[in-house]
Design brief:
- This protein has 241 residues and is mainly α.
- The chain has one domain.
- 73% of the residues lie in helices and 2% in strands.
Length: 241
């Protein structure tokens, strides 16, 4: 009965995302998080394999002219990068700002503007050498000053926007998170990109689930779920190959 209640709450949230959750004791919260950790990892893995299998069959049946397959070689991909670094960076970037706090928005805007300015405009390699590190830190500090001035000026309007359009922000975050993983696939011909909304569905689904965990339990818990979710392909690769 309790598990059915948790599944019902999860399903209702995905259809009607919001930032109101039932009060739970520390023990109940731990128990429900462990359930979601197992449940979401299993359902996300099954969904991902089902989508990959579907596109493989479509290729075999000559319905699509090119295969759509994930590119990681698990002998070469760093497990630390995939299970530790990627979850922390991606959760801070995509899920931290789901709950409005001026400091969260400042952090995200600074990170985005820094990435655009340093990597795209200047074409610099951040934090490899001493002078580059000093220069990058100086750029971050300058950007953060202007961002904080902007946030202070429009804080009330931004908070109102976050509350009024929370559902749009939540779904948009999951969709953008999905498209960010387009680079995870081998795409021999870019006409296949037209199908990307379909084969990126598992990543968008993961974005929705991670957003649910982030809002219900906090950003640390969504990082933990993200890490376990990324660990699943390693487990399947080395035990079922």
């Amino acid at each position: 009965m309790y598990i059915r209640k948790l599944i019902k709450e999860w399903f209702y949230f995905l259809l009607h995302p919001g930032d109101v959750f039932p009060d739970e004791s520390a023990r109940a919260k731990t128990g429900s998080f462990i359930f979601y950790l197992i449940f979401i990892c299993i359902i996300s893995t099954v969904f991902s394999f089902a989508v990959q299998y579907l596109f493989l069959q479509l290729f075999k049946w000559h319905i699509i002219s090119l295969p759509v397959i994930l590119k990681p070689d698990y002998h070469q991909v760093s497990i630390v990068g995939m299970v530790v670094i990627a979850p922390i960076v991606e959760e801070l970037l995509f899920r931290l700002n789901l709950r409005y706090r001026s400091v969260f928005i400042s952090f995200i805007l600074t990170l985005i503007l820094y990435s655009i300015f340093v990597r795209i405009v200047l074409g610099l390699l951040p934090f490899y050498y001493l002078w580059e590190s000093i220069g990058n830190i100086a750029i971050i500090m300058v950007i953060s000053v202007f961002v904080n001035l902007f946030i202070r000026r429009f804080n009330k309007s931004l908070e109102w926007f976050w509350i009024k359009y929370f559902r749009l922000i939540f779904y948009s975050s999951a969709i953008i998170f999905g498209f960010m993983h387009l680079g995870n696939y081998w795409i021999p011909n870019y006409t296949i990109v037209l199908l990307s909304p379909f084969f990126l569905l598992p990543f968008m689904f993961a974005g929705l689930n991670l957003g649910y965990i982030r809002l219900r339990y906090g950003i640390i818990f969504s990082i933990v779920l993200h890490a376990f979710n990324n660990l699943m392909p390693y487990i399947f690769h080395y035990n079922f190959r």
